[in-house]
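Trying the structure run again after the queue cleared.
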Amino acid sequence: MKKHSKKYVAALKNVDASKVYTIEEAVPVLKKTAVTKFDSTVDVSFALNVNPTHADQLIRGTITLPHGNGKTKRVLALTHGKTEEAKAAGAEYVGGKELLEKIQNENWFDFDVIVATPDMMGELGKMGRLLGPKGLMPNPKSGTVSPNLAQAVTEIKAGKLAYRVDKDGNLHLSVGRVSFSDDFLVDNIKAVTEHIQKARPATVKGTYVKTVAVHTTMGPSVKITYEGRS
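Done. Tokens:
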């Protein structure tokens, strides 16, 4: 059995394990469970009744939170001709094939997201085995492959998040920091829960969301409910 720290055990006393909180009730409780010295991340975790091996039940997409999530992402923009647009939109690194060679030859990963114009996909395709396992492979469905490179960069800088259910049907999204106001966290959590509810596959029968909880970095979970849960 995993042994928890004294801070975790103390934080756990703030949570009624038998209760499923409303989002408005959960946020103040959540803030009391923060156990780190830094400004903890706030995450929402879903256990979904889906089978990701079926293409129509692979829950994935993007969402832009009302108030961002407090994380600034470093963007690598790959393009043959829209270099200045990407730089103006705020991309930290902009280039073409030479940056892919740097990744491959120097094991360079000083960025969080790759966005690319469609004409770069031929080169990127060769990097699938390297970028795919790290979750860095650009994809049109996540908006990271786009002819409008400046818009793609701007949206990511504004807090656009990509998500994907794992093989066990679990889904995790960072929705803010403990330092956010209660109202900001409530808005962001509601935006995520409503978004995931709307992503329910037509082929899922019965319960779709088995459980949903919020938690801080290394802190205990607080179970929540929300409108439209089924």
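Residues 66 and 188 are 6 Å apart (CA to CA). Worth checking whether this holds up in the mutant runs.
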